[in-house]
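Supplementary Text 2. Reproducibility record for the structural model of the 126-residue chain.

All settings were left at their defaults, and a single model was retained for analysis rather than an ensemble. We include the record here because the model underlies the residue-level annotations in Supplementary Table 4.
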Amino acid sequence: MKGKTYVTNAFSLNMVSHLNKAKIVVERKTVEEVRAILSSGDFISGVGHEGTALLMSKILGIPISVNRTFIKLEPGDLLVTITLNVRLPEGAVLSEQDLEVYKQNLQFYTVSLEIEETKENHSFEL
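Retained model, structure tokens:
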């Protein structure tokens, strides 16, 4: 089942749809692999920072727009994300020029869900 394709600058468990049990599959990707995934232009940007969107656009040769939106991954969806593999100071927001310095520490990944449906109810009241 082919779902939506998203491109983001981060992944969070809050992006996983409200299912009782899911396996999160993370795969490291090359720039060429990501370029092939996104080349059709049929993706939704969830990149929240202008500097990151500009750098991703430059690296991939594909326009990536800034779009601070909430994403919920469903079975069949694919999320492409870029990760900076260094710890930044608290509250740091990097410009495109700042990110150029860290370019060798950038890595692309895809994230998808494998769902195991259960009948268990894990809800609770506060």
